[in-house]
Write a structure and sequence with these properties.
Elements lengths: L1 H9 L6 H22 L15 H5 L2 H25 L4 H17 L2 H6 L2 E5 L4 E5 L10 E6 L3 H43 L1
Antiparallel strand pairs: 1-2, 1-3
Helix pairs in contact: 2-4, 2-7, 4-5, 5-7
Length: 193
């Protein structure tokens, strides 16, 4: 019992590094996510005269929003990691919201790219896009490929899920430690009064 009181009393003078590190790991997994997503091979693409082509599927406002969200996510997560380092309980809510957003992101841009199909001719030029219509045929088409392979999609989903798990555990650890520290400080104040 005495060791528990000493541990909680030491928390007044030490930082909550466990929560902070978990939040920083969430940023690390997010970096792996966007590196994997944005390094997709798109330099051979061309647009067909009818206006179709990969540029219509990849270069959209959704991509721009994804990039901006990544920047904001990393900034807010870093600031929250600094907040939880000082046992500020309010930052746990911010981390939980960010974790939920990471889970939601799996079903947005990566899922859209995974469900997009391209037709590739013998010269490895991307000829056309076929989002829901799988029966379209084009002259000179040798095979149909997905824009994002199954393995890339699974890897990206794992990165986003790992980021969310780190954020949830960071929030949980901070909530628990903040409550312990607040109760201990309140107990010390009543003993001094």
């Amino acid at each position: 019992m005495n060791d528990d009181r000493i541990y909680v009393d030491r928390m007044r003078y030490t930082k909550n590094t466990k929560s902070s590190r978990l939040a920083l790991f969430a940023i690390f997994f997010n970096v792996l996510y966007f590196i994997s997503l944005y390094k997709l091979d798109i330099y051979e693409l061309r647009i067909l005269p009818n206006g179709t082509g990969l540029n219509n599927a990849y270069y959209t406002a959704l991509l721009g929003g994804s990039i901006i969200f990544n920047l904001v996510f990393m900034l807010v997560t870093f600031l929250a990691s600094e907040g939880v380092k000082n046992y500020q309980k309010g930052f746990s809510k911010v981390l939980i919201v960010l974790a939920v957003l990471q889970i939601v992101r799996i079903f947005l841009f990566p899922a859209l790219l995974h469900d997009t199909f391209l037709y590739v001719n013998e010269k490895r030029h991307f000829e056309a896009i076929d989002v829901p219509l799988l029966s379209m045929t084009f002259e000179g088409v040798s095979r149909k490929v997905t824009f994002m392979s199954d393995w890339q999609y699974i890897r990206i989903c794992i990165y986003l899920a790992a980021s969310a798990v780190c954020l949830f555990f960071s929030a949980r650890v901070n909530t628990k430690k903040s409550a312990l520290l607040a109760a201990h400080i309140e107990n010390l104040e009543t003993l001094q009064a």
